[in-house]
Amino acid sequence: MITVTRLDRTEVLVNEDLIVMASTTPDTTLIFTNGEHLMVRESLDEVRARVLQFKQAVVTGLLHVHEQPSE
Fold first, then answer.
1. CB 41 within 8 A of CB 7
2. CA angle, 57 as apex, 46 and 2 as ends, to 5°?
3. How far apart are CA 41 and CA 44, in angstroms?
4. Which of these, 14, 46, 59, 63, is most buried using a 10 Å CB contact count?
5. Where do the structural domains in the chain lie, given as residue ranges?
6. Can you tell me the distance from the alpha carbon of 63 to that of 13, in angstroms, rounded to the nearest whole number?
7. Phi and psi dihedrals of 3, rounded to 5?
8. Are 36 and 23 in contact (CB under 8 A)?
9. CA–CA distance from 35 to each of 20, 32, 41 (Å)?
10. Residues sharing a CB contact under 8 Å with residue 25, sequence separation 6 or more, in sequence order
11. Whole-structure pTM over 0.90, yes or no?
12. What DSSP element (H or E) covers 62?
């Protein structure tokens, strides 16, 4: 999950896998698979970076879990 900030400055966690689309109108709006919209303070670039960072952390974590210990 990633943290984003609503327009009222409250932070929320969102499941990045459920984001279908993000647009700027002029505020950044996240659209989810269930059709809900969430307007956030972060730019599209910030949202993209957070999603990529989270996914990289997941992949890196999975790689470390599957590494075999040296004997």
1. yes
2. 40
3. 10
4. 14
5. 2-66
6. 25
7. -95, 130
8. no
9. 9, 5, 20
10. none
11. no
12. helix 44-66
Q: Tokens 């009222």 label which residue?
A: 8
Instruction: Determine the pLDDT at residue 17.
Output: 95
For 20, list phi and psi in degrees, rounded to 5. -90, -40
| 19-71 per-position pLDDT tens digit | 999 999 899 999 999 999 999 999 999 999 999 999 999 888 877 766 656 65
Which contiguous run of DSSP H or E holds residue 22?
strand 19-24
Structure tokens at 16: 């990045």
Q: Among all chains, which residue has been given the structure tokens 């004997």?
A: 71
Side-chain-side CA neighbours of 29 within 13 Å: the count stands at: 9
Element (H or E) spanning 53, and its range?
helix 44-66
Q: Tokens for 29? A: 């709006």
For 2, residues 6+ apart whose C-beta sits below 8 A from its C-beta are 13, 14, 16, 47, 50, 51, 54
